[in-house]
Amino acid sequence: MATFIASAPETDFPINQRRIRAPRGLEKTCQGWIQEAALRMLMNNLDPEVAEDPDRLVVYGGCGKAARTWKDFDTIVATLRKLGNDETLLVQSGKPIGVIRTHEMAPRVLIANSLLVPRWATWEEFRRLEQMGLTMYGQMTAGSWIYIGSQGILQGTYETFAACGRKHFSKTEGESESPLAGRLVVSAGLGGMGGAQPLAATMNGAAFLGVDVNPARIERRLQTGYLDRMTRDLEEALHLVLGAKRKKQALSVGLVGNAAEIMPQLLRHGVAPDVLTDQTSAHDTLNGYIPLKKSPDEDLEALRRDRPQEYIGRAKESIALHVRALLELQARGAVTFEYGNNIRAQAVEAGVPEAFRIPGFVPEYIRPLFCQGRGPFRWAALSGDPEDIYRTDQAVVDTFPDNQDLARWIRLAREKVKFQGLPARICWLGYGERAKLGRRFNDMVRKGELRAPIVIGRDHLDAGSVASPHRETEGMKDGSDAIADWPILNALINTACGAGWVSVHHGGGVGIGYSLHAGMVAVADGSAEAERRLELVLASDPATGVLRHADAGYDEAVACAKDHDISVPGLNY
Q1: Which of 378, 372, 381, 376 is nearest to 421 (CA)?
Q2: What is the pLDDT of residues 398-433, one digit of tens each?
Q3: 164 and 337 in contact (C-beta within 8 Å)?
Q4: Is 497 known to be catalytic?
Q5: From the CB of residue 462, how many other CB atoms can be counted at a distance below 10 Å?
Q6: In sequence order, which residues have a C-beta less than 8 Å from that of residue 241 and are 6 or more positions away?
Q7: What's the whole-number mean pLDDT along residues 1-29?
Q8: Which residue among 118, 135, 261, 382 has its CA within the 20 to 30 Å range from the CA of 246?
Q9: 98: β partners
Q10: Which entry of 30, 63, 371, 427 is annotated as an active-site residue?
């Protein structure tokens, strides 16, 4: 039995007067906690504390949206409030299109975002269809309703910088400080994803210089405690960060400026960073990357609106200048890597064929973790009470008492991370660990140790949920970089195992035509049904990462499958 969804009525007030905030506490407005969790996390994505541009429904990443239109948002909310515990809502690129009779263990919501038939999978075709109102860009956790602010990528960035430090800047034996202490890290892009970089760098003891053309983004990182200082003057910025480097002090400075201009200026100043990367929204040359102005009073917004192809061409010209500077800084000794925004591919299109001399961060630093099914495990307190997160922090430490790196992360996160929207946390866990912690959280809810259920999800930057040849699957051992079966299998098995909601997306942080990826969310509400869902989903989800890498021939993944008794047909243990 299927139900067609009629659109909700248009709201009577202007969009810019809307202020969305997720409900808190134990009182439900939906028929079940999964529906309630989906509703609250959708709203949380658009909380002004969380979203980059909530008036336009944009959560992060240039144009990553939570719903296609405000009318669609209202319809989703109204439908979730009526959705039965044996029904599933279907959402097509941010538009609710039907309710299907399923069963109690099925997901309550299934989402597909930005999917195009491969021959038509271009930015030009996507934007044509978007203008017609037929699709939207979901990024990764924007359109799957599990974004938790910059903290969502914070530990991944922390882990990447830490791995970079261990690989390139060995500590003296007996030295207790981080390998990045006394090192300068430089990057650009301080939006929803890149905004995690300053805090991740200083957590690793580094001096950090971050460039962003939008001063509001830098101000936001100051307000949320992710950044220490802000300036509009390059000389002042260099004085601050180089002084901190000499003193081995952790300090982060946000510089207002365009990376295409600032990176070449570093060359002229003779400053070669120790570590160099980039998190501008270069994957989207229309809505993400900002080109250099031809004059101080040029109206780039008018250019974007009235002559989009010219704007895209100008953005690519600026990307070329930006990447040429990165390459020259790399030649002068900076450890340089792309941080998954596809800037190298854009630079190649703009006439910089050597752009891929810059390696990607996954093959350089993260793949060994993926082989163990290790990745970003995130959770949010539906009570809205920070104490619930602090209690779960302690549960993490108690559950894994021998993991000192994890304990250090939890301590640092509690000290330094300000919550955005619903209180939330993230940590990286491997196969077996995720299910164990999920059961622990569910037990805490059942016993009344937490004031309300916990919603558990992850980033799509994970072990087995992404096919992205310029990011998560770059340089696979067996050459399977572009094989996209894996995220589909991930979504299918998470659906079969009863995730609360499941999503499949196209594009993510690298752009249309460059990736497919899948997300899942589960809910710990203290019930026996929730425990069963958590046991299945939090095992199957990381298992696809182990299987993906075992199939590609990684010995670490084969060993992980053997150690955890993950069945791999045809593989003799």
Answers
A1: 381
A2: 999 999 989 999 999 999 999 999 999 999 999 999
A3: yes
A4: no
A5: 28
A6: 184, 207, 208, 209, 251, 253
A7: 71
A8: 261
A9: 90
A10: 427
